Amino acid sequence: MRRKFHHIRALAMGLLCCTLICFFTLLTDQFATASTNFTPPRDARVLNVRDFGATPNDSTDDTAAIQKAIVKAINRQTRYGSPPFIFIPKGTYLISDTLSSRIKQGGWSDGWRAGMILMGESRTQTILKLKNNLPAFSNPSNPKPVIMTGSEKNTDPKNSNSNPSGSGNEAFRQSIYHLTIDVGTGNDGAVGIDYLANNRGAIEDVTINSSSTKGIAGISMQRFGPGPALIKNVSINGFNYGISIGNFEYHMTLENISLRQQRIAGIENDVNTLSIRALKSTNDVPAVSVKSSHGFVVLIDSILKGGTKTRKNGIAVQSAGRLFVKNVSVSNYATAIEDTSKGKKNIKASLIREYTSLPPVSIVPSRKTSLNLPVKETPLYETTKLSEWANVEKFGASAFNQSNDDAPGIQAAIDSGRAVVYLPNGGYSVGSTIILRKNLKKLIGMQSSIDRKPNFKGPIFRLENGTSPFVILEHLSMGGDISHSSKRTLVIRHCDFPSYSNTSQGTGNLFIEDVIGKLFILYPQSVWARQLNTEFQNPELRNVGGKVWILGMKTEGPHTVLEASKGSQTEILGGAFRPNQDAPANVPAVIIRNSKVSLAYRITGSSGPDVFEYPLHIKEEQVKSVKELSLTKLSSMGVGQTVPLFNSSQ
Q1: Which residues contact residue 30 at a Cβ distance below 8 angstroms, ignoring those fewer than 6 apart?
Q2: What are 255-282's pLDDT values in tens digits?
Q3: Which of 17, 173, 203, 445 has the least C-beta neighbours within 10 A?
Q4: CATH number of the domain that residue 143 is part of
Q5: Alpha helix locations (H) across 530-636?
Q6: Which of residues 172, 194, 229 is at a domain's end?
Q7: How many other CB atoms are found less than 10 A from the CB of residue 401?
Q8: Residue 455: how many CB atoms within 10 A of its CB?
Q9: pLDDT value for 384
Q10: What is residue 583's DSSP assignment?
Q11: 640: containing domain
């Protein structure tokens, strides 16, 4: 009997190990392959820094030329709806001062503007190289960034010109793609990117290096108002901190982050809400540090490797705040998690299957772990073969003729059979729905806007059947809805739209990355969303019979955030629910009707010292039973506004 038991146990452990090895092998492969190139057609209406005097691969200082291109891009009224890409071709560009989303010092908002989108040609071959030993970058007590984005929000309502730091919550669409930042040596006060973006924005496919490992941070987010935004496919080598973030509002989503050789911590969070997936940290310091009891971190599907200095007494995850940790491998650290949020708990394990800093919350006794829905990676399609690209203006569309109906021209470009259709940067308007069909794999807007004609009320895009297994919508600001009416996969990245919904034929997968838009899943389908920003709709997310997995979600308005029904499954890992005012007592943040839900979330937003509230967090209807979970009840449980894990009763 004993031998049989040992055999079964060994077999079970073997299967578990095989599963984990496969998972972490796939995760490691993600880091190795997450790099793309971007070479736009000449007629895409991007701003090429070479046209402004930047000359790579020589001794010329390129700072002024690149800043001139930035000012040209953001000093226009269309920077909200259709800010052009600032394209940086391959080469090494010498930098001696901060590149910023600022047209000048002084004037309205002290010159800060939204809509700076830096688009490198290649992550490995487009390099912004800070000159060595620059006095302005040498003082750790006075950090200075290579790139800095800012907000148009004025910090002093009595003075429209007062915003010297660029802090605020109107840093819309600030983004950086496909390049490397090298802060050189002798620049001990350097910051790679001082980042601020709101509602939508991304740092994606970027490497940040400190040759000496010195410097303050690869990415710093210490000013008021970071997020919601997405940081994805980013590698940082050196600095005191790989990523540091300060303020309570709003929320940041991180995925596929590689950190090495930090001097204090890989990621340091003070009081913000972070949703982190696929972090790979190799360090002699903590991979993740949550300094404040008000900080909240969701960490899943990650690999944390210590070094020789951490084997005896090192801590991988050090937290005074709230935690949700799942599927995290830890090696060469004496302690996997040191949690001081409620007393002191030390977790010593090589694999954290699931850990919450407080016991999971449910209305009635329920499972003790999250739904753990399977996660799929977002499909991508990249090609530099411009013979596969179709320009909608060659088929009759026109960004500068507002009387023109651009729908026929865009449709003709799609029906041409090309794999990629692009809209040269500008503003388009349509009087009928554009059908995504034929051989189309990607429609890229070059950050254009596309609106409906006054008498047209239908969706702007509808996905129907075609030869490609997926279609990608990318870099578009849409003034109309999206309809999914196909078994094919739809991917929506870096886009704004009022709402998405599927039809009874729209059962194909949906992938979301860095978008502003409401989701109405009206029929069964699977959804994976990273950095979803929904605003001012009741409900902001409706799931009727679908499976929805979300990494990072921010909401606005005193409305119901999620309405789940008809046996649906919903998992939100890192929600920042912001009612903007105290919600009515009879409006629950979440409504569950005969469905399964797991939530790791917090209520955010404040007026002075007072945090806005949902008096009623959860209303759950299962079979014939209706139960509620109030803020009063959560407070009596010692949980309050930040809930590391809620599970429905199903």
Answers
A1: 256, 278, 377
A2: 999 999 999 999 999 999 999 999 999 9
A3: 17
A4: 2.160.20
A5: 631-636
A6: 229
A7: 12
A8: 6
A9: 86
A10: P
A11: 509-650
- Residue 477 is assigned to a structural domain of this protein: no
pLDDT digits (tens, 9 = 90+) for 515-540: 999 999 999 999 999 999 998 889 99
Whether residue 315 lies inside any domain: the answer is no
**Token digits for 381?**
């399609």
Select from 229, 262, 295 the last residue of a domain: 229
For β-strands 345-347 and 315-319, DSSP reports them as: unpaired
Is 588 inside any structural domain? yes
pLDDT confidence tier of residue 607, bands split at 50, 70 and 90 = low
* Percent helix, strand and coil across the chain, each to the nearest 5: 10, 45, 45
The number of domains in the chain is 2
Residue 50 forms part of a structural domain: yes
- Determine the average pLDDT of the residues in 319-338: 98
3-state secondary structure of 137: helix
Q: What is the CA radius of gyration of the chain?
A: 24
Q: Two tokens at 88? A: 């940086």
Residue 223 in contact with residue 196, Cβ under 8 Å? yes
Question: C-alpha angle 339/341/347, rounded to 5°?
Answer: 15
Task: Look up residue 616 and give its DSSP letter.
Answer: E
CA 170 to mean position of chain CA atoms: 17
CA–CA dist 203, 146 (Å, integer): 14
Neighbours of 462 (CB within 10 A): 19
Q: Say how far apart CA 23 and CA 561 lie, in whole Å.
A: 32
Residues 6+ apart with CB under 8 A from 398: 404, 406, 409, 428
pTM score above 0.90: yes
